[in-house]
Specification:
The protein has helices spanning about 10-20, 95-100, 100-105, 165-180, 200-210, 220-230, 255-275, and strands at about 30-35, 45-50, 70-75, 80-85, 110-120, 130-140, 185-190, 215, 230-240. The chain is an alpha/beta fold.
């Protein structure tokens, strides 16, 4: 179940004012880094590292592979705020807890959000190392972060999701791949499952038939809230393993993290090109 606690808006305001006291400038872009993808932060000139534990009401990640800090700084001339480490539904958090950082970004004035994740490939044309620019998603969590009283100052009761991922940012990312020579960049549909157990072969077959190209345990709650907040959203899945229902192989966290490391340079190159194209 996901219902906003009555003091949720106050929690968001308190967290946002803690951050704006440290950094009063509105960042051009926010970036959330998924499992094994924190190497992207190496591209930044970091001015502030704020552990989630220091930010009032910020939930902390219980997953060892996630750092749990807000990084503020710049890439080139662009001011960036990075959520390094995210929360997951499988950790026991409600989707409104998971998305509190997105509300905080909204409150500090962020208008563009890029979310990254590691995902299992369902599309048989994908390979480990494929970078999928998310074109659309399926929410198979069984929970929606907007359930409950709508906070009208944050967005509408029934937000439109006809374009949950900004078409202009998708195009800019594909152009950035061409311009920077980063190969194996495709578009596709991401499905979010609750986890933490991985999929069975039968579930994998069913997810493929549902139209999904990649499967993971994150991102969708944040995308729903960011759309409610009228942010422009882009999602990137690094395909870390290929799930073939007819030849199913064990899916291991070590392999997922290792694939993230292998792709770090390609992802960084892509992101640097993309950020250089962003206008204020
Ligand atoms: N399934 C779910 N989540 C994942 C996978 C997967 O195969 N790979 C990386 N994250």
């Amino acid at each position: 179940m996901s219902r906003l606690p009555s003091d949720y808006p106050d929690q968001v305001r308190a967290a946002a004012s803690y951050i704006t006291r440290i950094c009063p400038h509105t960042p051009l872009l926010a970036l959330q880094l998924g499992t094994g993808l924190d190497g992207l932060a190496k591209q930044m000139d970091i001015e502030h590292v704020i552990p989630y534990a220091d930010i009032p009401h910020f939930p902390e990640s219980t997953v060892e592979s996630h750092q749990g800090a807000l990084l503020i700084g710049s890439i080139g001339s662009s001011r960036i705020i990075v959520l390094s480490g995210r929360l997951h539904y499988y950790e026991g958090y409600s989707t409104s807890e998971i998305t509190l950082p997105i509300r905080v970004l909204q409150t500090v004035g962020v208008k563009r959000l890029i979310l990254t994740n590691a995902a299992g490939g369902l599309n048989p044309l994908f390979k480990p190392g494929t970078i999928m620019v998310i074109r659309d998603h399926l929410n198979f969590l069984g929970e929606n972060p907007l359930r409950g009283v709508n906070v009208a100052e944050w967005g509408p009761r029934f937000p439109d999701l006809s374009e949950p991922y900004d078409p202009a940012m998708i195009k800019m990312m594909l152009d950035s791949a061409d311009a920077s020579g980063v190969d194996r960049v495709v578009t596709g549909i991401y499905v979010c499952i609750p986890g933490p157990s991985l999929e069975t072969p039968a579930e994998t077959r069913w997810l493929r038939e549902s139209g999904a190209d990649a499967v993971g345990m994150s991102t969708v709650p944040e995308v729903i809230v960011a759309n409610h907040a009228s942010m422009k959203v882009l999602g990137l899945s690094l395909v870390s393993n290929l799930n073939d229902p007819d030849n199913f192989q064990p899916i291991l966290l070590e392999d997922i993290i290792a694939e993230g490391r292998r792709a770090a340079d390609r992802l960084a190159k892509l992101m640097l090109e993309f950020i250089s194209r962003l206008e204020d």
